[in-house]
């Protein structure tokens, strides 16, 4: 159920969620993050990457080289699923597999220069799409949103790795 307010449509609180300020705010942030991501994803068409490939490329561009097992944990999928995506990205010249300099048993997935350029173009398009949504916002509202984004970024940085992976797939505060 969705309620109307002077500021637009507000999502109803899901059953079983407490009716306190923190949970009500979380409900609003969750809904806005999903809708915002949908708007941002409309700009991904020019990247010629499906969601799993764009997501995994984003991780290796912004978090640096990662072993497949770590990528699987971040993306919350199985290592064989990550291997398939890595193979596709590698075939496109967007990532390479390299042995770790510190532990030769570990293979790291690393973004290529082409992968970084493609992701930066995609991120720029997403940022422009979000900025377009904010074109009518007042300076005060922009400052409030900036502060809220900083608060969320801090909370995400303190979250356990599994929660960060889930957050990364939905909100992407530091990625595309």
UniProtKB/TrEMBL annotation:
Record-linked SMART domains: HTH_MARR
Segments for region (Disordered): 1-23
Keyword ATP-binding: no
InterPro entries assigned to the protein according to its UniProt record, in alphabetical order: HTH_MarR-typ, MarR/SlyA-like, Tscrpt_reg_MarR-type_CS, WH-like_DNA-bd_sf, WH_DNA-bd_sf
GO terms of molecular function: DNA binding; DNA-binding transcription factor activity
PROSITE patterns the record matches: HTH_MARR_1, HTH_MARR_2
Pfam families membership: MarR
SUPFAM superfamilies: Winged helix' DNA-binding domain (SSF46785)
Coiled-coil portions: none
Example of a GO biological process term: response to stress
UniProt domain HTH marR-type: residue ranges: 22-154
Gene3D superfamilies membership: Winged helix-like DNA-binding domain superfamily/Winged helix DNA-binding domain
Keywords from the UniProt entry: DNA-binding, Transcription, Transcription regulation
Name of the protein in question: HTH marR-type domain-containing protein
Originating species: Phytohabitans suffuscus
């Amino acid at each position: 159920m969705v309620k109307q307010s002077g500021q637009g449509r507000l999502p109803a609180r899901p059953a079983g969620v407490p009716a306190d300020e923190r949970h009500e705010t979380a409900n609003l942030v969750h809904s806005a993050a999903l809708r915002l991501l949908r708007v941002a994803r409309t700009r991904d068409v020019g990247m010629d990457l499906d969601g799993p490939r764009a997501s995994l490329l984003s991780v290796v561009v912004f978090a640096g080289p990662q072993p497949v097992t770590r990528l699987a944990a971040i993306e919350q999928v199985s290592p064989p699923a990550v291997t398939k995506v890595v193979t596709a990205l590698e075939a496109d010249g967007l990532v390479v597999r390299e042995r770790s300099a510190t532990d030769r048993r570990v293979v790291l997935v690393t973004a290529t220069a082409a992968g970084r350029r493609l992701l930066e173009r995609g991120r720029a398009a997403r940022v422009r799409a979000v900025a377009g949504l904010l074109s009518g916002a007042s300076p005060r509202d922009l400052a409030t949103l900036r502060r809220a984004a900083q608060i969320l970024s801090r909370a995400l940085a303190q979250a356990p790795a599994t929660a960060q992976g889930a957050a990364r797939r939905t909100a992407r505060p530091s990625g595309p």
